[in-house]
Amino acid sequence: MKAVLFDLDGTLLTEMPLIQLFLPLVYDGLSKRLGITKEEARNRFLNEIMARKDTYDWHDWNFFFELFGVNLKYEDLLRKYPHKLHVYPDVRPTLKWLRDRGYSLAVVTSGPSYQRIKLQLTGLEKYFDAIVTREDVKAIKPEPRIFLHALEKLGVGPEEALYVGDSLSQDVYGAKHVGMTAVWINREGAEGYHMADYEIRTLHELRKIMEGLR
After folding, report:
1. Scanning 3, 119, 142, 149, which has its CA 20 to 30 A from the CA of 135?
2. How many angstroms separate the Cα of 212 from the Cα of each of 5, 120, 171?
3. Cα angle 173, 57, 75; round to 5
4. pLDDT tier, 191 (very low <50, low <70, confident <90, very high otherwise)
């Protein structure tokens, strides 16, 4: 095994504190502009998001801001509230451990280019040899070409790489479909099905897997 590739949101960090900050602002603005209650505004906004789940558009907050005429840019929110991005505590020690042992590292995310801002603001960018977003290939996971593009940038084949992500349908299925070893990080202990090659609760468990594959 020569390389380890990671999903971003839900795997390396969570943006939930930021989401909890801006969504009430969105609902308040919509209710005033449309003359509806905040509850109705909330339902309209969230129903639209759920109706587009797992589509290309679903991965971009700016798409929904523009769709509803909300005067926000996600890039601006990230830069204004960087402390609302929370890196999981097992991330930096694991990335350092992998780097020290010579593995090539990459992030593969279905999000747009502002995903790079998250990595910059959190200081995680320095750990990675490649960062691939949907806009680099006009594709989202589990489409093969987003994974293959990352592997090409690292100069490794699928059989030489391991992928870690929190989504069975996007990360695990997509990685296995192109021939990579797939690790499902199940931080919340959710019920799943036996698709992944490995299932872990924290990234610390990745060390044992890597040592077993050496």
Report:
1. 3
2. 17, 32, 22
3. 110
4. confident
Sign of CA dihedral 131, 83, 66, 37: positive
CA distance 91 to 2: 19
Taking the alpha carbons of 158, 204, 199, 117 in that order, is the dihedral positive or negative? negative
What does the pLDDT look like over 64-101, one tens digit per residue? 999 999 999 999 999 999 999 999 999 999 999 999 99
pLDDT tens-digit readout, 14-70 = 999 999 999 999 999 999 988 999 999 999 999 999 999 989 999 999 999 999 999
In this structure, what token pair is assigned to residue 127?
């750990």
Rounded (5°) CA angle 105-106-107: 140
Task: Measure the CA dihedral 102/154/92/174, to 10°.
Answer: -130
Q: How far is the C-alpha of 66 from the C-alpha of 155, rounded, in Å? A: 38
- 112 conformational bin, left if phi > 0, alpha if psi -120 to 50, beta if neither: beta
* More confident: 190 or 87: 87
Render 39-95 in DSSP notation, one character per residue: HHHHHHHHHHHHHTTTSTGGG-HHHHHHHTT----HHHHHHH-GGG-EE-TTHHHHH
Quote the CA–CA distance of 194 and 55 in Å, as a whole number: 24
Residue listed under structure tokens 């890039």: 75
pTM: 0.94
